Amino acid sequence: MQVYLPIAEVSVNALMLLGLGGLVGVLSGMFGVGGGFLLTPLLFFIGIPPSVAVATGANQIVASSFSGVLAHLKRKTVDFRMGGVLLAGGIVGATLGVMLFNYLKTMGQVDLLVRLFYVVFLGIIGALMFVESLRALRKSRRGGPATRKKHNWVHGLPLKMRFRTSGLYISVIPPVLVGLSVGVLAAIMGVGGGFIMVPAMIYLLGMPTKVVIGTSLFQIIFVAAFTTVLHASTNYTVDVMLAVLLILGGVVGAQFGTIIGTRMKAEQLRILLASMVLLVCGKLALELLLRPSELYNITAVDSH
């Protein structure tokens, strides 16, 4: 069943879009990531222009993350205080990111930049997560618990705050900076930023894995919603028809993902997420390196 997407100006299969939304929803519930790191490149692959994929992908992330948070609220695994601090940084970062996105759009370089951002960030994060997850998995198989650093340089910084749900007493500076960087990425890449936030919360802030996922999703809801509003009001690149189909699939998928996630070990979840990140990174890098089928592309430039 083909549907025409007015903003993207392409026709795509509606069932395929529902399936993509469902897949991303499952990831959201399992890993505490918005799923945009996978959804946005998949939209590139089916012919959606990168500027539309980024803005509309952020919109879908809101729905799948909200669905995932509801499941975590029942288990009381959301640290609202930590989520608020991350959110403060995220809003500032999203504003800066949309400003940069708009500037690059006027320069005509936004499509290439978005793809390059994906290859660089997914490659670095995926590799680091994969190596660490393998190490943790080996340690747990030997019978020893997977250790998490309780104290590092973060604990020596000023402006400390107590986060009771996470069992932490640390400076607010690192969470604000994590939120800020995730906000910038949300605006430029159309991601919730969970693929960066989740490892940062575990290894940098020292949060327990069971609390990280729900807290990450809580923050992603608001940053992704704010990013969507900014893109819709400044770039006019949010395709409502595309967003609705992705959201319907995402909300259902997130519930299944949460159930699957609770039945797997933390180390298994992390190594699975790292593998998926590296897979998407490889596909994008290949597309950038291979000779395109069309060497020239003529597009009309809006002079207004």
TrEMBL record:
It is a multi-pass membrane protein. It holds the Pfam family TauE. The chain crosses the membrane at residues 12-39, 85-104, 116-138, 212-234, 240-259. Keywords: Cell membrane, Membrane, Transmembrane, Transmembrane helix. It is found in: Cell membrane; Membrane. Coiled coil: none annotated. Its main location: membrane. The keyword Membrane applies. It comes from the Bacteria. Belongs to the 4-toluene sulfonate uptake permease (TSUP) (TC 2.A.102) family. This is Probable membrane transporter protein. It comes from Ponticoccus alexandrii.
